[in-house]
Amino acid sequence: MLRSVLVDGVEAFVQLEDEWNALARSVVTCHYTQTFEWAKLGWETRDASAGDRLICATIWSDSRLVAVWPFQRNRLGPATRLEPLGCGMHEEYGDPLIAPDMNAAEICRELMALLRPMADIIEVPFVEQDGAVRQVLERTGAFQIPNPLDSYMIERRGVENLDDLLPSYSSKFRTNLKQGRKRLQKLGELRFELPEDYASSVETIDWVIEEKRRWLRRMDKSCPWLGKGEARAFFLAASMKRGELGRVGLFRLTLDGNPIAAFLTMIDRTRVELLTTSFDPDYSRYSPGMLIIEDTVRWCFEHGLDFDMRILRMDYKERWSNAQTVRIQYRVPLTAKGAAVLLPAYLVYSFYWTVHAISNAEQRAAIRRMMKWRPVLNGRNRPPTGQIEPSA
């Protein structure tokens, strides 16, 4: 017998730890971002505002927790909003954690039924395109604002080590890696590291964030989370955690002890997830970003893990990946007030996709067929209208 229970508040949330961990152990593919530890750190290191609430939708089978979906409730203008607990970047995968022996579609419907009365808007980042939660979100609210993005991975696919995988890449690709590494090694001692001590972790986190800020300034771009302190606070707190269900990994490539490329990642029992990356532009001619990927993938193979480069289409991801999926970010109004707040964004979204459809030849043909309309070619006589011309 399934029971739906809404957990509201920190005290009730803390009581979920043991059952949540047991559920995570039962899901072999559980992401570190779906664990109790990740959610707890997200709540403790967030940029707190008055009125914030910690809310978890849970499903129980007798005394066993079989599904959990954690959120924080905050404000977006005059509306209340649910958004997942996390590191502050709002880029984690947003699927709920569901026991493998449960009907995912039924569970997702029950979870959404719990959450709908709790806010005006729900934001869920990057759910699986073919997942059950996507189907539920598509049927929720007066409208939805989806943002689909390609996601890239390097899967082991039965290959035992990276040296067996590399021949599947072009000879030019492999040659560029070797030459870049040799040229860097001539400049000094090149080392690939996964720091375990706190001081090195702080150094790596701060270096990645500062290099990312420098890159944004050079490109005249902005990034909301870099202007806040919660992401740094989260990773500092997480850097020393070593739980059985996952950890943060701070991979870096150093030259004579100084970082020239680094990753902030999540490591769980099946994969390493790349969350954000930075490299020193002074060494760009040596492609340190490509070299640290090679080293990280080698480390993944040695530990029996896949490497998930995650969302956003980037040249280096397309060149490295051997698997690709689609993840979709959703913003959905749950009330009339939520619809009013999201309406401007929805109109922008609708206009963009209308223009995109019109500019696409296949879409234009489909629109013409739908409207049963045909263009009249210049110089062609118009078809008869059925009107009888008067005789002379």
Automatic annotation (TrEMBL):
Keywords: Transferase. Pfam families: Acetyltransf_6 (PF13480). One of its GO terms (molecular function) is transferase activity. Residues 171-317 form the BioF2-like acetyltransferase domain. InterPro entries: Acyl_CoA_acyltransferase, BioF2-like_GNAT_dom. The keyword 4Fe-4S does not apply. This is CelD/BcsL family acetyltransferase involved in cellulose biosynthesis. It comes from Aliirhizobium cellulosilyticum.
